[in-house]
Amino acid sequence: MSDTKIRCAWCGGDPLMITYHDEEWGAPVRDARTLWEMLILEGFQAGLSWRTILHRREGFRAAFDYFDPDKVARYGADRVEALMADPGIIRARAKIQATIGNAQIYLAMRDTDEDFGAWVWRLAGAASRRGDGVHVPAKTPESEAISKALKARGFKFVGPTIVYAWMQAVGMVNDHAHDCFRRDEV
Q1: In CATH, what number is assigned to the domain containing residue 60?
Q2: Whole-structure pTM over 0.90, yes or no?
Q3: Catalytic member of 25, 36, 37, 42
Q4: Among the four residues 28, 67, 97, 175, which has the most C-beta atoms within 10 Å?
C-alpha cells in the first residue's frame, strides 16, 4: 500500500525530510532548550539547505554535547578547533563561535530566571498565525522584530530570514500548504 498523504512540496521524496515534516515541522515547541537547539540549527543552515542540516543533525547533537548550553557555553579555543575538524557538522568558525556565545546568552537569561522559551513565545505573540499555504514569505515584520530583540541580547546568526524559518519549524507560524495533511494537525 502506498502513502497517499499530501505533503508540503519542500520535503520531496527524501525519507528523512518526510519524517521531519510529518512529525516535527510546524508543531508548536515550548521547551526552551529545544527552541534554542532549533535556533542554532537554523543559524547553521544560513546559505545552505535544511536538508543538509537535517542529514547532519545527529552529528551536530553529538558534536555540541546534545545542545547542552551549560557545556557549550564553556567551549574554548581547543574545542572550536576540534569542531572545525568534525566532518559531521558544518565547519564554519563564525557559526561555531556564535553557538558558544548564544549558549552564554541563553544561560545568562536562565540565571536571571528568564525562560528563553517563554520569552520568544511572548515576542512571537501575534506572529502566531496560519499562513495561506500558498504564499510563504522569507521574512515577516514579526520575524524582523524577533530578530532585532535577539540581536539586542547579543545572539548571532539570527537575521529575520533565519528567524522566520525557525518560527515555521517550531510552530510559531503554520505555513503548511493548504492541502497538506499536517496543516490542520498543528
Answers
A1: 1.10.340.30
A2: yes
A3: 42
A4: 175
